[in-house]
Structures are given as C-alpha cells and as structure tokens.
Design a protein that fits this description.
With about 240 residues, the chain is α/β, with parallel strands linked by helices. Helix content is about 40%, strand content about 25%.
Length: about 240
C-alpha cells in the first residue's frame, strides 16, 4: 500500500523503514516536532521513575541530573519507551506493555508502601492523568515536564499533492494531537475531503474519534496501543 506516516521524528523514519521492509510505499510528514525543555526534577529522593513516551527520555539524555536517576527502577508504558530508557543508561527497566492505566497498575504494585515520591517524566500535553491515578492509590508523584510537542504549520507540498490526487491508501496515526494537526493541515491546504478518503489506521479509539468527527469514513483501530498491533491492521490480521 501507499502509506502516510504522520508521527514525529525520529520515530517516523524508523516506522517508514519498517513499512518498506513489509513491501509498502511510504510518505513521511511528521506533524509534531519535539522541543526539549529544562526539566526540574526536584530534590528527591525518589522511589523510581515513570515514562509514557520515548521523547520524555530522549529529552533528558543530556540533563545535568540524569546520573541521579539511572540507578532507579524505571517503569515504561511500552517496549519502545523502555528501549529509549535503556539507550540513555537506565539499568532496571520494566514495561507495562499497554496504556497509562496499565502503567499505573504496574507502578501501584511496584511501589506499594513506599513513602518516597515517584518521578514522572512527562510531556507538556498529557493524554492521561497518571499522577492522579496513582495518587488515588496512595502513591505520591512528582511530575517533571521534559519536552513539548509543537504542531507543524502545514503539510509538505508532496503530501498535499499525494492526498489531493488520491495517491495515499492509508494514513497511520499515533496520537490524538497528531490526528488533530492532520485535520488542521488538511483545512489549510483546502483538501479536507481528499484527506479523509484514505483508510485511517489509529493506535487508539480516542484518536479514531477525533478523525471520525473530522469526516473520516474508513477507520481501523489497533487491538492494543502499540505499533505491532497497528501493523497487524495493515495485514488484515
């Protein structure tokens, strides 16, 4: 198939390469760009670290206090985030292999009874209230904002042309904000109807709801919130 990948870099390039190995043609249009921020961790000590995004970990790769965290247990939402944690030096890494609720459940079990705070490395825009979920279970969370995702102003011109001419069979969406930016860029280019024609492959029902409200007729939602399940949709598994 001819597929459009909309997730931010560097993940967009990795996803495109994986799709090409499966025989698909790809266009890449990262619709969000990461801006690392100077995160304030606080004083600690911490029981452990939480991460729901690989970007949150990439953003602290050169942080002056990074070494203070690397010996702590890090709980990640999924395998990709867990891999990003290992790449910057975390040694005790565990993955919930699900969504924020699964991560909250893993954290509640791991840190049950602790009197220390858990440090949550997060983005400026959070899809779920992880701190609230854990607070309700008696676990105190310190949230450190490590990055912000900024929407792009417009589609690249080759993407505008491909969508307008019907040369895109499917679009892969990894977040609600990316889906919302997709709709905004389509409106700016005056190609909303054409942009809604491809099949839209979504990592979650929340993403699909945003696209359905925007006029998408053919939506497919992954059985699990991970890339393997999203790719399975392409194969009709």
């Amino acid at each position: 198939m001819r597929l459009l990948v909309t997730r931010p870099q560097p993940d967009a390039a990795r996803t495109a390469a994986a799709l090409q190995k499966r025989g698909h043609q790809t266009l890449v249009a990262p619709l969000l760009r990461m801006e690392p921020l100077e995160a304030r961790f606080g004083l600690g000590p911490w029981a452990g670290v939480l991460a729901t995004s690989a970007n949150a970990l990439r953003a602290i790769a050169d942080h002056r206090k990074r070494e203070e965290l690397l010996g702590l247990p890090l709980l990640a939402v999924g395998s990709r985030t867990a891999q990003a944690a290992r790449e910057i030096g975390f040694r005790d890494v565990r993955a919930a292999d699900g969504d924020a609720r699964d991560l909250a459940a893993l954290a509640a079990s791991t840190f049950r009874g602790t009197t220390r705070q858990v440090l949550y490395l997060a983005g400026a825009n959070q899809a779920a209230d992880l701190a609230g979920m854990l607070g309700a279970r008696g676990i105190r969370v310190r949230t450190a904002i490590t990055y912000r995702m900024n929407p792009v102003a417009a589609f690249p011109q080759d993407v505008v042309a491909a969508l307008a001419e019907g040369r895109v069979d499917g679009v892969l969406h990894y977040s609600r904000r990316t889906a919302e930016t997709y709709l905004q860029c389509a409106d700016l280019a005056d190609i909303r109807r054409a942009a809604m024609c491809p099949t839209h492959y979504c990592l979650s029902h929340e993403i699909g709801a945003a696209l359905q409200a925007g006029g998408a007729a053919d939506l497919r939602v992954a059985a699990r919130p991970d890339e393997a399940a999203l790719f399975a949709l392409l194969e009709g598994v």
